[in-house]
């Protein structure tokens, strides 16, 4: 248990341990623009509900947020639509890779959860219908919550994904055939790839996740989600946020968490703090190797977990 008034010492200890740790995985190579990152890079930040932020390593280095953004689009759309959203996307772990197609046919075009690609496409589609610019609404939200007006899209990453987007296109077309996509598929894919391409640092993303530690309340004190909805988002992160490794993540880390193939992972200790760790080397399920290890050490060293 840490009794320290700040999280700085525990962050420094984790960074030191990670430096000595062998085996960092490999950067995502299915998006060529991400493949060049050195798996040895590492940063980690912790934000308290009042906006105090601690960091270590490359905690201010922007990286490709990728699927971490799926938490924020879910929250934005749940706030707009409420429970009706769950008629279009489930909330059960899929036990399958993030880009899998296999369950969609026998489950009638309703994706298992909002964090696999199929589910995120449904959420972004619905957010786009209601806002006219889903990726723009997401960027505005992230800028406001992080306090960083410079956050932006990385056009090269979005273009790289578009050029290699056959699988996401297949998912979107397949769901459209079941009537579960409202916008033209090319429009939806453009929004989704822009969403994934947002560049943000560990500090930015730890701060932007703060509303989930504050039980739904935004940085400016206004409410985005009801307390119950914030609990729901945290629960879906715990059970589905790391795809077919969600059981292992819950076992090792014991926190709601969401990974992205850029190597970022966000995590929430409700009522206490939010975390973001970045290291570009991934395991075979698309989760950052050093990121999961660092969060594992955090909950072990501090005793802060939801269990
Ligand atoms: O849809 C994709 O392939 C990516 N843009 C996002 C995937 C992702 O980050 C999955 N995460 N682990």
Characteristic key phrases:
13 helices, binds 6-diazenyl-5-OXO-L-norleucine, Glutaminase, Beta-lactamase, 307 residues, 8 strands, 10% strand, alpha+beta
Give a short overview.
With 307 residues, the protein is an alpha+beta fold. It has helices at 8-20, 69-81, 102-106, 117-131, 134-146, 155-163, 166-177, 185-196, 202-208, 210-213, 227-240, 246-252, 289-302, and strands at residues 43-47, 53-57, 63-64, 152-153, 198-200, 257-259, 264-269, 273-278.
Secondary-structure blueprint of this entry?
Layout: H1 8-20, E1 43-47, E2 53-57, E3 63-64, H2 69-81, H3 102-106, H4 117-131, H5 134-146, E4 152-153, H6 155-163, H7 166-177, H8 185-196, E5 198-200, H9 202-208, H10 210-213, H11 227-240, H12 246-252, E6 257-259, E7 264-269, E8 273-278, H13 289-302
Helix pairs in contact: 1-13, 2-4, 2-5, 2-11, 4-7, 4-8, 5-8, 5-9, 6-8, 7-8
The structure holds 6-diazenyl-5-OXO-L-norleucine (DON).
6-diazenyl-5-OXO-L-norleucine binds at residues 66-67, 98-99, 117, 161, 168, 196, 259-261, 286.
Notes on the protein architecture:
It is built from 13 helices and eight strands. By secondary structure, the protein is α+β, with helices and mostly antiparallel strands. It has a single domain (8-302), classed as 3-Layer(aba) Sandwich (Beta-lactamase). Helix 1 packs across helix 13 (289-302) and helix 5 packs parallel to helix 8 (185-196). The model has no long low-confidence stretch (mean pLDDT 95). Bound molecules: 6-diazenyl-5-OXO-L-norleucine (DON). The site of 6-diazenyl-5-OXO-L-norleucine has 12 residues, from loops. Belongs to the glutaminase family. InterPro entries: Beta-lactam/transpept-like, Glutaminase. Substrate binds at residues 67, 117, 161, 168, 192, 243, 261. This is Glutaminase.
